[in-house]
UniProtKB/TrEMBL annotation:
<protein>
    <recommendedName>
        <fullName>4-coumarate--CoA ligase</fullName>
    </recommendedName>
</protein>
<dbReference type="GO" id="GO:0106286">
    <property type="term" value="F:(E)-caffeate-CoA ligase activity"/>
</dbReference>
<dbReference type="InterPro" id="IPR000873">
    <property type="entry name" value="AMP-dep_synth/lig_dom"/>
</dbReference>
<comment type="pathway">
    <text>Phytoalexin biosynthesis; 3,4',5-trihydroxystilbene biosynthesis; 3,4',5-trihydroxystilbene from trans-4-coumarate: step 1/2.</text>
</comment>
<dbReference type="InterPro" id="IPR045851">
    <property type="entry name" value="AMP-bd_C_sf"/>
</dbReference>
<feature type="domain" description="AMP-binding enzyme C-terminal">
    <location>
        <begin position="454"/>
        <end position="531"/>
    </location>
</feature>
<dbReference type="Pfam" id="PF00501">
    <property type="entry name" value="AMP-binding"/>
</dbReference>
<feature type="domain" description="AMP-dependent synthetase/ligase">
    <location>
        <begin position="20"/>
        <end position="404"/>
    </location>
</feature>
<keyword id="KW-0587">Phenylpropanoid metabolism</keyword>
<dbReference type="GO" id="GO:0009698">
    <property type="term" value="P:phenylpropanoid metabolic process"/>
</dbReference>
<dbReference type="InterPro" id="IPR042099">
    <property type="entry name" value="ANL_N_sf"/>
</dbReference>
<keyword id="KW-0436">Ligase</keyword>
<dbReference type="InterPro" id="IPR025110">
    <property type="entry name" value="AMP-bd_C"/>
</dbReference>
<dbReference type="InterPro" id="IPR020845">
    <property type="entry name" value="AMP-binding_CS"/>
</dbReference>
<dbReference type="Pfam" id="PF13193">
    <property type="entry name" value="AMP-binding_C"/>
</dbReference>
<comment type="similarity">
    <text>Belongs to the ATP-dependent AMP-binding enzyme family.</text>
</comment>
């Protein structure tokens, strides 16, 4: 069969942009986007994206140029996930809650030719650009406004802006022949990591990789045709775990929210009959802590990832009527590549055990080639005993092309045929992976490696604890000891003391894992996607100096 080779009919590049083209035919009159009083159908969304892609091209944007977006979960943000790649450009969504200095750093690194800016981020972009060196090329700016904007905007260009988003849609060519990738490994997105380690990296994904992870995520979560999807996960965070494109593949209705809290989420679920939503564990925690204790009229599927969720939080969320699925992925994988695929026999176990099983990250998704936990010294798989720690490694079609302008960083994590995640985990006897920590968050106390995540899971079972994070504090005898940072639930009548929390942990953990220090905080430092910034807490613990605890 050596004479059989790839040919144009069987090797057309994979791209998730085709999902929108198909949706315009299959789901033409079905709602694609609902936002306040705005409702679009899939046919209208396709036409709007074609026109926008045409207008982007008319500004001189060429294949593989970077186009950035600073916007919340609004229709324009969703449309630009298609329109920018349809122009041949590379989509770069920027976390709009970052400070101006960081946004300036990212823009100078990405060097976009064009930036779309939501009206609420006007001052942010102005300050970020003011930090540019004098001779550094500045991008064109396009202003996004909508029916939430309380200000009547002038029609003339203003404050360095080149034009308005809706004008570009209006004036675009609906017959535009969108720019298809020449090769499925052509870049489609440039995403910056969330900054939990204080040094964001630019992650580049291909059309092929995003196609695979989008389809893979739909299959693993068993998403049916025409779901009603509530956007509580920021689209700027790994492109909403690629469900931006995935919803077009199944003709879903995208319920967009400019901002949200628990009350808004519950109201939207009821108003739109929401079936699916995603969120980091912090969102689950938010839903569990509504003062009036709401429960759902109908089950809602919620997919959580981003940090290992404590079993106690999963238990509370499901008791409200949510059906929680749990997965694992990174910005470098474009979405979830490990999911806790549920077994029917687990339905019969007690609720607490069910939550414990669901807290594990799980097994590789159908589209991933391999997932393993290896010993970093021997490079061999660790024992499947649920105890032996190793680094989580991955390989598969949706792993990033590499870090933008960072060949050294790319080579450090892409080696020996694997992508090294930097996460520490164990493999259970049944083949299910469980993340125990980030490699930098493992605490070495008296020569013992202990998982901060395990300690946090116990802290979350304390009835007064709302959030918890555990990091290493220097210790003159043990080397390091666990230091817990916690904030308490609102309305707690009897606030626990440091001694109370330590005694609570001592009853549930081996002595070497019990926090030696407990710090109560009004709020834990987080990224805008809800990840606790442990590097900030590590610095705080370090600043406390070496602890002088008993050697017993």
């Amino acid at each position: 069969m050596d004479e059989l080779k790839p040919t144009p009919p069987n090797s057309s590049p994979l791209t998730p942009i085709g999902f929108l083209e198909r949706a315009a035919t299959v789901y033409s009159d079905c709602p694609s986007i609902i936002y306040n009083s705005t409702i679009y159908t899939w046919s209208q969304t396709y036409q709007r994206c074609l026109k926008m892609a045409s207008s982007i091209s008319s500004l001189g944007i060429k294949r593989n140029d970077v186009v950035s977006v600073l916007a919340p979960n609004i229709p324009a943000m969703y449309e630009l996930h298609f329109a920018i790649p349809m122009s041949g450009a590379v989509l770069n969504t920027i976390n709009l809650r970052l400070d101006p200095r960081t946004v300036s750093v990212l823009l100078r690194h990405a060097q976009p030719k064009l930036v779309f800016v939501d009206y609420q981020s006007e001052s942010l972009i102005a300050e970020a650009l003011s930090l540019f060196p004098v001779n550094f090329n500045r991008p064109l700016l396009i202003f996004i406004t909508d029916d939430s904007d309380p200000i009547e905007r002038p029609r003339s260009f203003r404050n360095g802006f080149h034009g308005y988003y809706e004008d570009m849609v209006l004036n675009g060519d609906s017959d535009f022949n969108w720019v298809r990738p020449e090769n499925e490994f052509d870049p489609i997105t440039l995403n910056y990591t969330s900054g939990t380690t204080s040094s964001p990296k630019g992650v580049v994904h291909s059309h092929r990789g995003i196609f695979i992870v989008s389809m893979d995520s739909l299959i693993e979560w068993s998403v049916p045709k025409e779901p009603v999807y509530l956007w509580t996960l920021p689209m700027f965070h790994a492109n909403g775990w690629s469900y931006t494109w995935g919803m077009a593949a199944v003709g879903g209705t995208n319920i967009c929210l400019r901002k949200f809290d628990a009350a808004i989420i519950y109201d939207a679920i009821r108003k739109y009959d929401v079936t699916h939503m995603c969120g980091a564990p912090v969102v689950l925690n938010m839903l569990c802590n509504v003062p009036d204790g709401r429960t759902l009229e109908k089950p809602v599927n919620i997919l959580t990832a981003g940090a290992p969720p404590p079993a106690a939080v999963l238990f509370r969320t499901e008791s409200l009527g949510f059906v929680v699925s749990h997965g694992y992925g990174l910005t470098e994988t474009g979405g979830l590549v490990v999911c806790c695929s549920w077994k029917k026999k687990w339905d019969r176990v007690p609720a607490a055990e069910k939550a414990r099983l669901k807290a594990r990250q799980g097994v590789k998704t159908p589209g991933m080639a391999e997932v393993d936990v290896i010993d970093p010294e021997t490079l061999k798989s660790v024992s499947r005993d649920g105890k032996s720690l190793g680094e989580v490694v991955l390989r598969g079609g949706c792993v990033m092309l590499g870090y933008f302008k960072d060949p050294e960083g790319t080579s450090k994590c892409m080696k020996n045929g694997w992508f090294y995640t930097g996460d520490v985990g164990v493999m259970h006897p049944d083949g299910y992976l469980e993340i125990k920590d980030r490699s930098k968050d493992v605490i070495i106390s008296g020569g013992e490696n202990l998982s901060s995540v395990e300690v946090e899971s116990v802290l979350y079972t304390h009835p007064a604890v709302n959030e918890a994070a555990v990091v290493a504090r220097p210790d003159e005898f043990w080397g390091e000891t666990p230091c817990a940072f916690v904030n308490l639930r609102e309305g707690v009548k009897e606030k626990p003391t440091e001694k109370d929390v330590i005694e609570f942990c001592r009853a549930k953990l081996p002595r070497y894992m019990v926090p030696k220090t407990v710090v109560f905080m009004e709020e834990l430092p987080k990224t805008s996607t809800g990840k606790i910034q442990k590097f900030v807490l590590r610095e705080m613990a370090k600043a406390m100096g070496s602890s002088k605890m008993s050697r017993l």
